[in-house]
Amino acid sequence: MKKRTDRKIAIAGTAAAAVILPAVMVGLAQAGVGVPKGKPQAAGNAQPIPSFGPPTQPTQVSGAPSPTAPAPKQTPIKVPNLPLTHGGNPFGTGGSPAKNDPDTNNGAHGDKPHLPPGVGDGKYRKAPDGATITAIKKVHAQEFDVSIASPALGSVVQARVLVPKGWKASDTKTYPVVYAYHGGNNKYTSWSHDGHIENVAKNYNVMVVMPEGGSNGSYANWWNGGKGGIPMWESFHISEVIPLMEANFHAGSTRAAMGLSSGGQGAITYAERHAGYFKYAASYSGALNITAPGMPAVLTLMNKDAGTKIWGDPIFNRSNWESHDAAVNVRKLKGTGLYISAGNGKPGPYDNPNAAPGDAGRVGEDLAGQMTVNFVNAAKRSGVSVTSHLYGPGMHNWKYWRREVDLSWPAMMAAIGAKKS
């Protein structure tokens, strides 16, 4: 049978039957989807830090370097066999996707990169691939919404830019910059609207760039059946957004990356895949071990229409999955400052104590927490220093992520040389 057509039909049918999604996830995990070569290793000895009462201090985790060690073995992810409630998306982060979301434009998927129709030369400096700013709208005194015509996405999408006090368009000086990536089913306004990032950034001479990341783009150039093409989120963020910010907004070359949920995955994998681009990377409840046993089934089915378009088939295209797995590639982060945090999905101090076991926020943080523990253990085995805050009880929501940004911000600012203003 050609390319296991029966299996692809089963995946598509399962995605449509959202009400039975968790049970199917467990069934696929037990069938071996996403099981790596070799015997999985038992969970490591990282101990969660209680989150009740005042926020606890993060712990430093490091290990002896082992440059010749094989790729880290992975602890299987325990997927709860429960019906999901409250929206049914375990990695939803609130808000709503952009109206022109490239992830949902199925007709363009796989097309070669191209500028959207009607884009002229404009007055702004372009990125090397021709990406250009088409409009800048002032939101507040220090905040702008920037429209970007992107060949990598084949459309015009937005980024929100927060500039430091004293910034002027006519400046010649540059500023350290944080690239902040949002989570699933959200958009470029997320870090401002939900994260209130201005509250921590205002005290430093730092720029914060919050680009569109798609509703389920997962911060990768999509596989699209092996032909690649649109949408190319990694190319957009690295090869278009960064040069456009540096050429037009005086963003400096000293950078940090941060993100939550799928955006946390983006921050860490970008730092791994682009050596030297980021001095510091932070993940809050990130998807940091996508090839752990059980997780390919969860992610493939959760993405519904995207299915295997993002990274390909989890068995036949496993090398592409592994190349986007933060835990598998953790050795590439030696020398990069890291802050990694997550809860365990149980109701914590900011949650409804009576939240049902199948609450999407509980399930999402349970899965993110397990992947984060796997990442921290992989870092320890590889000799990569990481500040980790595994805070125990806590669900998948902004109240924890705002707290984690507060905890990680001073070290991030120090790493990129941002000064208090």
Structure explained in plain terms:
The protein is an alpha/beta fold and 421 residues long. 27% of the residues lie in helices and 16% in strands. It contains 10 helices and 10 strands. The protein has helices at 5-16, 21-31, 190-193, 198-201, 233-248, 262-273, 295-302, 318-323, 360-382, 398-416, and strands at 59-61, 132-140, 143-150, 155-162, 175-181, 207-211, 251-260, 280-284, 337-342, 386-390. A 10-stranded mixed beta sheet has the order 1-10-9-8-7-5-6-4-3-2, sandwiched between helices. Helix 2 (21-31) packs antiparallel against helix 7 (295-302). The longest helix is centred in the C-terminal third of the chain and has 23 residues, at 360-382. It starts with a helix and ends in a 5-residue tail after the last helix.
Set out the fold topology:
Layout: H1 5-16, H2 21-31, E1 59-61, E2 132-140, E3 143-150, E4 155-162, E5 175-181, H3 190-193, H4 198-201, E6 207-211, H5 233-248, E7 251-260, H6 262-273, E8 280-284, H7 295-302, H8 318-323, E9 337-342, H9 360-382, E10 386-390, H10 398-416
Parallel strand pairs: 5-6, 5-7, 7-8, 8-9, 9-10
Antiparallel strand pairs: 1-10, 2-3, 3-4, 4-6
